[in-house]
C-alpha cells in the first residue's frame, strides 16, 4: 500500500514537472494570445471591462461557467482570470494525459516511449494552439482527454472525473462538445466492450448505463440552468437576434439592395440601412431587431442558389480523401491549411493497433471491427464539416486531437499487456521520429505568426493608448476596422471599464450593451455618436460616405471632421450640420 502511494505521488510529480517544462518553454519563446476577437470580447464581458462590473452572462458560454468566472473576477479584479482558465484547461488536459500514462504502463521502457511521444505531440502538433488560445480548441482538448481517460481508467473516481470534464467542456462551448461526443461515445463503447469480456456482464451493463444516464442528466441540467438564466429581461429578444444574425452572417449571403428593393421595402429597410448590414455596423439602427434580421436570413435562404447536395458531397469527399493522406509542412498558422503531421499520426496509430490486434483471435477481430466503425464515424464527422464548409483549424485540429487521444488510449491500454509490447513500442518510436521532423516547422510558423500579429497590433496598441489617454471621451469603432487585433494574455491587465465599443458584432443590441450605454449616459448609438464627447474610429483606408448617407436618410445632416490620426486610424468628430 505504501509503495502504491509513493508511486502515485511520484507519477503526479513527474506529470506536473513535464507539463510545467512545456508551459515554461512555450512562455519563454512566445507571448500568449487570445486567438480571436471572440475570446477577447468574452474576456471583456466576464472581467467587467465592457460594462464596468464582471458579467455572469457572457453570451457565448453557458451560464454556470460564466457565473463562476465572473465571480473570480470580482475576487481578483486585476487578474486575467479567463486567460488563466483557458490555459489551465489546456495544460491540465496534458497533465492528466501524462499522469494516466504513467499510472497505467508498468514497463519502464514502454512508459518512457509513450511519454516521449506525448511530449513530442504537444510540441510538434499542439504548440500553436498553446500560444494562440481559442476556447473551441480548448474544449476539444478536454473532450479528447476525457476519451483517453475513459479507455485507460477504471472505478468510480475515473467515471466522476470523466463526467466533470465533459460537463465543463459543454459549459465552455456546447456546440464543440456536441461535435466531440461521438468520439467520446466511441471511447465509452470500447471500454464497455472490454469490461464485458473481463468481468460480470450484468454488473458491467448496470454501471455503464448508470454512467451514461448521470452524464447526460448533467448536460441537461447545465443547459437548463443556462436557459433559465437567459429567460428574463431583454435576453430572450437578444437570443432571437443572435440566432438570426448567426444564420445570416455565417450560413447565408446578405442579399444586395439592388434587385431586392421590394423585399427590403416590405420590412422597412432602405438602401442606407441595408449598407449597415454589409459593413456590420447595424448597431446604429434601432429598427434592425430580431424580427428584421430573421426575415432577412429567411429571405437570403429562400433565394440562395444552392449547389446540389450530390455535388457538394462529391467535392467534400475529394477534399476529405486528399486531407486524409496529404503530407506537407505548414506555411502558415491557419492558412493555407495542412493537416500534417496530425493526419499521418492518426493513420499510423490505426495501423499499430491493427498489427497488435491480429495476434489475437476473438479480441483481435473485435478490435479491428471497432476501428472500422470508428473510421466510418470520423469520416462522417469530417464530411459534415466539409459539406458545411466550416472547417477552421480550431475545429479540424480539435477533431484530430480527440481521435488521437482515443487511439492513444487504446494503445496505452495495450502496452500494459506483456505479449503486445513489440508492435506498440516500435510503432510509437516511428511516430516520435516522424513528429520530431515537424517541430522546427511548427516553431517557425508560430514565430512568424507572432511576428505578423506584432506588426498588426502596433497600430491598435497606439489607438488603445490614445483612447485610454482621452478617458473623458467615448469612441465608437467601425467593425471592420477592429477585426485584425489579437490581444495578448497577461499583459497590461486592467479590467477597468473601456471607453469604447464597436458598432456591431455578436454582443450588439444585447442587454449588456444597453448597460454599457447607460454607464456613459447614452440612450442609443445613433444619438450618442452626435454628442460632444463621442467620436468615430475608422481605418484611414475607409470612407465615411455610408455614415453620411445613413444620417441623411434619417433626416439628419452631418459633417464628419477628422480631428486626429492614430496608428492608421482616423478619429472622426461627427457633428450635426447647423444652418
Distance between the termini: 91 Å
- CA radius of gyration is 26 Å
Secondary-structure element string:
HEHHHHHEHHHHHHHHHHHHHEEHHEHEE
Number of E-type strands: 7
Number of helices: 22
Q: What is the beta-strand fraction? A: 5-15%
The coarse silhouette is elongated
**Oligomerization status of the protein chains:** single chain
Largest sheet: 5 strands, mixed
Low-confidence runs (pLDDT<50, min 5 residues)?
Answer: none
Q: Which strands sit side by side, in order, in the main sheet?
A: 4-3-5-7-6
Average residue pLDDT: 92
Walk me through the structure.
The structure is a single chain. The chain is mostly helical. Helix content is 67%, strand content 6%. It has helices spanning 2-29, 37-47, 63-75, 81-104, 108-124, 127-131, 135-152, 155-172, 174-198, 201-229, 235-251, 261-266, 271-278, 290-303, 309-325, 342-357, 362-387, 393-415, 421-469, 511-519, 525-528, 545-553; strands at 33-34, 132-133, 474-477, 500-502, 534-539, 558-566, 569-576. The strands form two sheets. The chain has a five-stranded mixed sheet. The chain has a two-stranded parallel sheet with strand order 1-2. Strand 6 and strand 7 form a beta hairpin. Helix 7 runs parallel beside helix 18 and helix 16 (342-357) runs antiparallel to helix 19. The longest helix is centred in the C-terminal third of the chain and has 49 residues, at 421-469. The chain is elongated, with a radius of gyration of 26 Å. The mean pLDDT is 92.
Amino acid at each position: 500500500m505504501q509503495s502504491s502511494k509513493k508511486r502515485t505521488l511520484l507519477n503526479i510529480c513527474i506529470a506536473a514537472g513535464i507539463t510545467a517544462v512545456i508551459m515554461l518553454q512555450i512562455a519563454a519563446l512566445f507571448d500568449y494570445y487570445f486567438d480571436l476577437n471572440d475570446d477577447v470580447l468574452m474576456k471583456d464581458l466576464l472581467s467587467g471591462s465592457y460594462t464596468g462590473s464582471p458579467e455572469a452572462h457572457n453570451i457565448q458560454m453557458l451560464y454556470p461557467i460564466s457565473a463562476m468566472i465572473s465571480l473570480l473576477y470580482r475576487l481578483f479584479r486585476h487578474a486575467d482570470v479567463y486567460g488563466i482558465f483557458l490555459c489551465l484547461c489546456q495544460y491540465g488536459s496534458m497533465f492528466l494525459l501524462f499522469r494516466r500514462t504513467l499510472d497505467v504502463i508498468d514497463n519502464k521502457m514502454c512508459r518512457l516511449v509513450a511519454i516521449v511521444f506525448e511530449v513530442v505531440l504537444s510540441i510538434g502538433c499542439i504548440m500553436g494552439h498553446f500560444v494562440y488560445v481559442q476556447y473551441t480548441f480548448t474544449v476539444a482538448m478536454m473532450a479528447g482527454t476525457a476519451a483517453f481517460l475513459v479507455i485507460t481508467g477504471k472505478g468510480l473516481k475515473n467515471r466522476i472525473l470523466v463526467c466533470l470534464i465533459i460537463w465543463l467542456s459543454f459549459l465552455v462551448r456546447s456546440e464543440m462538445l456536441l461535435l466531440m461526443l461521438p468520439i467520446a461515445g466511441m471511447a465509452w463503447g470500447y471500454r464497455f466492450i472490454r469490461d464485458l469480456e473481463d468481468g460480470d456482464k450484468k454488473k458491467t451493463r448496470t454501471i455503464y448505463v448508470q454512467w451514461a444516464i448521470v452524464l447526460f442528466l448533467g448536460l441537461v441540467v447545465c443547459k437548463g440552468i443556462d436557459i433559465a438564466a437567459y429567460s428574463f429581461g431583454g435576453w430572450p429578444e437578444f437570443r432571437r437576434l443572435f440566432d438570426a444574425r448567426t444564420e445570416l452572417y455565417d450560413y447565408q449571403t446578405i442579399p444586395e439592395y439592388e434587385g431586392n428593393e421590394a423585399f427590403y421595402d416590405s420590412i422597412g429597410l432602405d438602401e442606407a440601412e441595408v449598407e449597415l448590414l454589409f459593413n456590420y455596423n447595424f448597431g446604429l439602427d434601432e429598427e434592425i431587431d430580431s424580427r428584421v434580421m430573421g426575415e432577412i436570413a429567411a429571405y437570403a435562404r429562400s433565394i440562395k442558389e444552392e449547389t446540389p447536395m450530390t455535388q457538394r458531397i462529391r467535392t467534400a469527399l475529394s477534399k476529405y480523401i486528399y486531407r486524409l493522406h496529404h503530407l506537407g509542412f505548414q506555411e502558415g498558422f491557419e492558412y493555407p491549411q495542412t493537416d500534417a503531421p496530425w493526419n499521418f499520426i492518426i493513420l499510423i496509430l490505426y495501423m499499430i493497433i491493427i498489427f497488435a490486434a491480429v495476434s489475437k483471435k476473438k479480441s483481435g477481430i473485435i478490435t479491428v471491427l471497432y476501428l472500422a466503425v470508428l473510421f466510418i464515424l470520423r469520416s462522417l464527422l469530417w464530411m459534415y464539416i466539409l459539406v458545411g464548409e466550416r472547417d477552421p483549424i480550431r475545429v479540424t485540429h480539435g477533431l484530430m486531437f480527440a481521435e488521437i487521444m482515443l487511439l492513444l488510449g487504446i494503445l496505452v491500454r495495450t502496452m500494459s499487456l506483456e505479449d503486445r509490447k513489440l508492435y506498440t513500442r516500435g510503432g510509437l518510436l516511428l511516430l516520435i521520429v516522424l513528429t520530431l521532423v515537424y517541430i522546427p516547422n511548427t516553431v517557425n510558423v508560430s514565430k512568424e505568426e507572432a511576428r505578423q500579429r506584432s506588426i498588426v497590433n502596433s497600430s491598435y496598441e497606439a489607438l488603445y493608448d490614445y483612447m485610454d489617454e482621452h478617458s473623458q471621451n467615448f469612441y465608437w469603432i467601425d467593425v471592420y476596422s477592429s477585426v485584425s487585433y489579437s490581444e495578448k494574455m497577461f499583459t497590461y491587465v486592467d479590467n477597468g471599464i473601456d471607453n469604447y465599443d464597436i458598432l456591431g458584432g455578436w454582443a450588439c443590441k444585447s442587454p449588456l450593451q444597453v448597460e454599457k450605454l447607460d454607464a456613459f449616459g447614452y440612450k442609443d448609438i445613433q444619438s450618442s455618436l452626435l454628442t460632444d464627447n463621442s467620436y468615430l474610429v475608422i481605418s484611414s483606408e475607409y470612407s465615411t460616405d455610408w455614415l453620411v448617407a445613413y444620417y441623411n436618410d434619417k433626416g439628419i445632416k452631418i459633417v464628419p471632421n477628422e480631428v486626429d490620426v492614430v496608428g492608421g486610424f482616423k478619429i472622426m468628430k461627427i457633428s450635426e450640420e447647423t444652418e
